[in-house]
Design a protein that fits this description.
about 675 residues, 8-stranded parallel β-sheet, 22 helices, alpha/beta
Length: about 675
């Protein structure tokens, strides 16, 4: 292939052109954009950079008719070409459809073409494949291959002069590859040491602040106000005013270089709030314990709902996660416990139990506490600590049965590997607040208890996937319709909580609504606080995972550019994906509704881990904040959080402003050209 056409001539078209030049030598380029000034500027720029002529076209048809390869990267609101314009052997690399509302390629083209996807499951949700299936011209089984299968040779790509469409929606495998590549490129580079790479006087969204664990823990503690912020989040969730996608999970497989461990990603936006939050909870890195390190870590990325810029990175080491979990338990006690509840039991006496006890004390006055843990030393230490802090007696029990039989309210927060109580131990009016089941493999509460109890969930759809509800449904003792209410419905009064002395189970799996609430609450608490100014809140000599480095946009752009090596890293990611060696969850999306205070805009969260790699990556792409343009600001921003696959610690936060996202998209386009374009392609079009 020697000619190429670009339909759409923005930054993604530039990335496609530059990256393609690392793998293929085109002789003629064509560009088309409705904005002819922008179109001409793109063609002049690419001609000068890449050394072959680019012609600005007056129509998409003119560009497409001339091209062996056609790149489409428009906003995706309408079809950008027609079947009769295309050369019979054309390759179309379509990257404009990354949401279910977008569609660039007409059904007739998809029907005729050999279709290759970056990841079929994702293209069925948001890509050109989705539109073709909806139009009735394709089924999932009509997809010829995933790009990685072509790279690996398990499926043929091009076999002759057939029309091919490569549907690129952007995968977490690419983000994982770019994350690892960039960390090598930044090795030894000091953040902030590079001069600005473009006009520093041009307005841009500010970089986020990085708050360390000590500053956060010194500034935020359990309180009635914090509990009420979480309570309000549940209420707004029930009112349909919170956008909370189902969580993502990335598994870090155990190899000599890494793992095992897990990364849970949650997030959400409460309509009208000043911020939204995406949280990474990195857990179950149990090999750390042998080294005297904690088994995980955590980061909140708090973003400005007005303009889409990342506002703060909170290296909270799961402290805020535990606080928000404790606050949810307190809300459950407030609305579901019997009115005169005097006694409370904790099955599992770790940090979450402490958070539950402290937060519950902000809304209810218990008179007697009980604790049970298999580790009696830990059990006694918990009871002594809570007695001293909360002002009522805690008794360490020698069995879970002893603790449960004495309690009006029972908190369960164990690793969730087995049942922790029995129906016959429970008081008839007991409230069980169960928070140990947050993965499909976990289950603390026996089916017999779930069958007898009135079940309230934090969010039913999520509990069906990972909570105690999931286990009860699998055991055949409950259906989804047997759930009495979501906690927010009880708070709002749209459904009754407790009506008498019935047994109640509150199934808490942890929601992005809580993370959103805590994010906004913490930003208020940190107002005026200088990161790093607080003294350590515990023994600084005790080993802990290091804080991440925050790399600014200028440092990143000065250190990383399109190259054959970068393209090959993305090519390898597709190959590993096809080999089943990449854990890539389906993406999350948080919509920022337009209100006088915020939006509109979108946050797309993707990520993944390539088995054996030194890092994994979670990326936030904040886009479509078009009100920014009126202020001379970009319509979005972006952040990569790169984590250490050895110990689960966040290694770096890359404030890339979508530069790395565009690079990895361009690299994917280059891989498509390398493996799918006709061999002697000379011309390329950018639409």
């Amino acid at each position: 292939a020697k000619s190429v056409a670009f339909i759409g001539t923005g930054v993604i078209a530039e990335a496609m052109a530059r990256s393609s030049a690392t793998v293929h030598g085109f002789e003629q380029g064509y560009g088309y954009s409705r904005d002819m000034t922008k179109n001409s500027a793109f063609c002049d720029k690419m001609s000068a950079e890449l050394g072959y002529a680019f012609t600005p076209c007056s129509s998409a048809e003119e560009a497409v008719r001339n091209a062996d390869v056609v790149f489409t990267q428009t906003p995706g609101g309408e079809w950008v070409l027609d079947l009769k314009w295309l050369k019979p052997h054309a390759l179309i690399v379509a990257s404009g459809s990354d949401q279910p509302t977008k569609n660039e390629i007409p059904p007739a083209v998809m029907k005729k073409a050999r279709v290759v996807t970056d990841i079929t499951a994702q293209c069925l949700r948001v890509g050109e494949l989705r539109s073709a299936v909806e139009a009735g011209v394709m089924k999932e089984t009509d997809v010829h291959a995933q790009l990685g299968e072509v790279i690996n040779g398990t499926k043929k790509g091009r076999t002759g002069k057939e029309l091919i469409v490569c549907d690129l929606t952007g995968t977490g495998a690419q983000d994982a590859a770019i994350g690892s590549y960039v960390m090598k490129a930044l090795d030894g580079v000091v953040p902030g040491a590079m001069p600005p790479v473009f006009d520093a006087n041009k307005p841009r969204l500010p970089a986020p602040k990085l708050y360390d664990y000590d500053t956060i823990k010194s500034s935020v503690a359990p309180s009635r106000e914090l509990t009420e912020s979480v309570e309000d989040a549940f209420s707004q969730l029930a009112n349909g005013r919170v956008d909370v996608p189902l969580p993502m999970h990335i598994g870090i497989a155990e190899t000599p270089e890494a793992g095992p461990g897990d990364c849970h990603i949650k997030g959400g936006y409460i309509e009208g709030a000043p911020t939204w939050t995406v949280k990474l909870a990195n857990v179950s890195f149990y090999n750390n314990v042998k080294k005297g390190l904690p088994a995980g870590s955590g980061v909140f990325v708090v973003c400005d709902a007005t303009n889409g810029g990342p506002k703060a990175v909170l290296h909270e080491n799961r402290y805020l996660t535990d606080l928000r979990t404790g606050a949810a338990g307190a809300v459950a006690v407030k609305h579901l416990a019997i009115k005169d509840a005097k006694s409370v039991a904790f099955i599992g006496t770790g940090v979450i139990a402490e958070a539950m006890a402290r937060s519950s004390a902000t809304v209810h006055g218990f008179e007697q506490g009980y604790g049970y843990s298999r580790d009696m030393t830990k059990n006694s230490a918990f009871c002594d600590k809570m007695s001293a802090e909360l002002g009522y007696a805690f008794t360490p029990c020698s069995s879970a049965e002893e603790a449960v039989r004495n309690a009006d309210v029972v908190f369960t927060q164990t690793p969730g590997g087995e049942w922790v109580l029995d129906l016959k131990w429970l008081k008839p009016h007991a409230l069980i607040v169960a928070s140990g089941s947050d993965q499909p493999t976990k289950n603390e509460i026996p089916p017999a208890v779930m069958k007898k109890a009135r079940v309230v969930t934090d969010i039913t759809a999520q509990c069906l996937r990972v909570g105690e509800l999931r286990s009860a449904v699998e055991a055949g003792v409950m259906k989804e319709t047997d759930v009495h209410a979501q906690l927010g419905e009880v708070i709002n009064g749209t459904k009754k909580g407790r009506t008498g002395k019935e047994l109640i189970v509150c199934d808490l799996t942890g929601t992005g609504a809580q993370d959103a609430a805590i994010g906004s609450y913490v930003m208020k608490a940190l107002d005026g606080v200088v990161p790093g100014a607080m003294p350590p809140v515990f023994d600084a000599n005790k080993p802990r995972l290091p804080a991440p480095k925050l790399y600014d946009y200028d440092t990143i752009k000065s250190s990383v550019a399109p190259s054959r090596e970068l393209t090959e890293s993305v090519e390898d990611a597709f190959s590993q994906l096809a080999n089943g060696r990449v854990d890539v969850p389906l993406p999350m999306h948080i919509g920022i509704a337009e209100t006088p205070e915020a939006g509109p805009g979108d946050c797309h969260i993707k990520g993944g881990y390539i088995e054996g790699a030194p890092t994994w990556t979670v990326k936030l792409a904040n886009v479509s904040f078009y009100n920014n343009v009126k202020k001379g600001l970009p319509a979005g921003s972006g952040v990569f959080v790169v984590c250490d696959a050895t110990n689960g610690g966040p290694k770096a936060v890359l404030h890339e402003n979508r530069y790395l996202t565009d690079l990895r998209t361009g690299a994917a386009g280059a891989v498509a050209v390398k493996h799918l374009a006709i061999k002697d392609a000379k011309s390329v079009a950018f639409i």
